[in-house]
């Protein structure tokens, strides 16, 4: 490797990039990384971490209101009016800065050379950074994705999900456009913080790709706290005094303080120098890789959101580790994308692992379906009109649990354990033979006995 200055040059110091740097360096490789924006990438700065902090903030409204049924005399309405967005933002910023420092320390402690500048590919083994060029035997692209706003008249007036974390005050009213993770989460956050919220989505139901029963259920639950406008879309955005006027395809108009376009993210491959190498892109701009994350240019690899497989931080970490160990430890391990648990931090949360009923039927599987709609014990005294939903998709032939779906507070915390069981091959009989913890919502997973026929 002496003909190159580095054994590995990583572009992007997000979760995947930093993990690859650390593993490769620990295996003796000479490693460099270039990061032009912020250490920690999307997740730490404008994604899962700050969004979860804002979700916690929003949930306190429910806790304050629910406490009245348990004898607490704090006036819920007064407490909500006293919410201070600036305190939340300032404390969020402090935590994010702390985490960014940790990511930088990981690189420094592993003797990774850090370039805080934009990097571009010159050829398959050369990177240009800050007016200089550097050579590497291998290059890893871990540049992530970036929010995308559709082009329509006035679209420049819209915010994207990154902008939310820089807002200096809570808007009185907001229109959120989109029906995926980001849109549903932010709409829930704003609604529970007291902002008059409208969620606009062009589809029939929110959260395409999730189990159809979950999609229907969450639409009903979050619809209790915001206005849902489905089968419609924004065609124009205008200034309206100190706010905005949103024109919908249906002809309807909505006045609001802000519009958040949460209509998706795209791989951040522009101005990366890809024209200088033989790296193929898919139709949506994602980098094409093989099972070992090598691009169509030998020696250049890519992981994380830029390859558009499963856009989750733990997935990027796992992919990066596989690449680093393959290159510098001769380790061969395939990435397993089955039974990856995930959560949507709306109110209530959604968590899922494995396949949906719809996917099972599309694969031609014969499945048994177990589901339950329940009200948590907590709300017998709080009086809150909130229900939870639990569903298991079970293979008839093997009795193995193929999918688990939950809509409930802190659903992600519960689903992590279910995912372990599913990856260990748990069957419905295993669930049934497990003693439940009473009284909890979680015990519903091991007490469901009645099954229904799946849709034909």
Overview of this protein structure:
With about 450 residues, the chain is an alpha/beta fold. Helix content is about 30%, strand content about 25%. It is built from 13 helices and 22 strands. Strands 1, 2, 3, 4, 5, 6 and 16 form a seven-stranded mixed beta sheet that branches. The protein has a six-stranded antiparallel beta sheet with strand order 17-18-21-20-19-22, sandwiched between helices. Helix 1 (about 15-25) runs parallel beside helix 9 and helix 3 (about 50-65) packs parallel to helix 7.
Structural domains: how many: 3
CATH architecture of the largest domain: 3-Layer(bba) Sandwich
CATH topology of the largest domain: FAD/NAD(P)-binding domain
Helix content: 25-40%
Number of separate helices: 13
Reported for the largest beta sheet, the result is:
7 strands, mixed
Low-confidence stretches: none
Amino- and carboxy-terminal Cα gap: 59 Å
Show the helix and strand layout.
Layout: E1 6-11, H1 15-26, E2 31-34, H2 41-46, H3 48-66, H4 76-81, H5 85-109, E3 113-115, E4 119-123, E5 126-129, E6 132-141, E7 145-147, H6 161-164, E8 173-177, H7 181-192, E9 196-201, H8 212-222, E10 227-230, E11 234-240, E12 243-248, E13 253-256, E14 258-261, E15 265-267, E16 300-302, H9 313-329, E17 342-344, E18 350-354, H10 357-362, E19 367-374, H11 378-382, E20 388-395, E21 401-407, H12 411-423, H13 428-432, E22 452-453
Helix pairs in contact: 1-9, 3-5, 3-7
């Amino acid at each position: 490797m002496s003909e190159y200055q580095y054994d590995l040059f990583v572009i992007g110091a997000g979760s995947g990039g930093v993990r690859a740097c650390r593993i490769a360096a620990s295996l003796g490789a000479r490693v460099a990384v270039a990061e032009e924006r912020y250490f920690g990438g999307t997740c730490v700065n404008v994604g899962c971490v700050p969004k979860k902090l804002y979700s916690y903030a929003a949930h306190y409204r429910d806790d304050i209101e629910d406490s009245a049924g348990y004898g607490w005399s704090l006036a819920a309405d007064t407490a909500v009016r006293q919410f201070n967005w600036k305190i939340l933002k300032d404390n969020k910023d402090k935590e994010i800065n702390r985490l960014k420092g940790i990511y930088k320390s990981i690189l420094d402690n592993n003797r990774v050379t850090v370039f805080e500048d934009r990097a571009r590919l010159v050829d398959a083994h050369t990177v240009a950074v800050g007016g200089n060029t550097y050579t590497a035997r291998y290059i890893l692209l871990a540049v992530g994705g970036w929010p995308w706003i559709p082009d329509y008249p006035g679209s420049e007036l819209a915010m994207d999900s990154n902008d939310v974390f820089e807002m200096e005050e809570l808007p009185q009213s907001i229109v959120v456009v989109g029906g995926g993770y980001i849109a549903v989460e932010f709409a829930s956050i704003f609604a529970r913080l007291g902002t008059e919220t409208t969620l606009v989505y062009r589809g029939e139901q929110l959260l395409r790709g999730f189990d159809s029963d979950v999609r229907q259920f969450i639409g009903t639950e979050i619809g209790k706290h915001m206005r849902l406008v489905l089968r419609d879309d924004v065609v124009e955005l205008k200034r309206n005094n100190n706010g905005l006027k949103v024109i919908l395809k249906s002809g309807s108009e909505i006045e609001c303080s802000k519009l958040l376009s949460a209509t998706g993210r795209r791989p951040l491959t522009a101005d990366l120098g890809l024209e200088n190498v033989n790296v193929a892109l898919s139709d949506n701009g994602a980098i094409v890789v093989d099972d070992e994350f090598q691009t169509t240019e030998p020696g250049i690899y890519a992981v994380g959101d830029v390859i558009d497989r499963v856009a989750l931080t733990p997935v990027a970490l796992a992919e990066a580790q596989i690449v680093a160990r393959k290159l510098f430890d001769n380790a061969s391990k395939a990435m397993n994308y089955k039974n990856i648990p995930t959560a949507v931090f709306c109110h209530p949360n959604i968590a899922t692992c494995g396949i949906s009923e719809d996917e099972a039927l599309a694969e031609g599987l014969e499945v048994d379906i177990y589901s339950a709609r329940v009200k948590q014990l907590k709300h017998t005294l709080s009086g809150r009109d909130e229900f939870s939903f639990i569903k298991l998709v079970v293979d008839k032939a093997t009795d193995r649990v193929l999918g688990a779906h939950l809509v409930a507070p802190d659903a992600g915390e519960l689903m992590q354990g279910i995912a372990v069981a599913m990856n260990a091959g748990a069957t419905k009989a295993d669930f049934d033979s497990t003693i439940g913890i009473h009284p909890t919502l979680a015990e519903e997973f091991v007490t469901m006995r009645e099954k229904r026929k799946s849709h034909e």
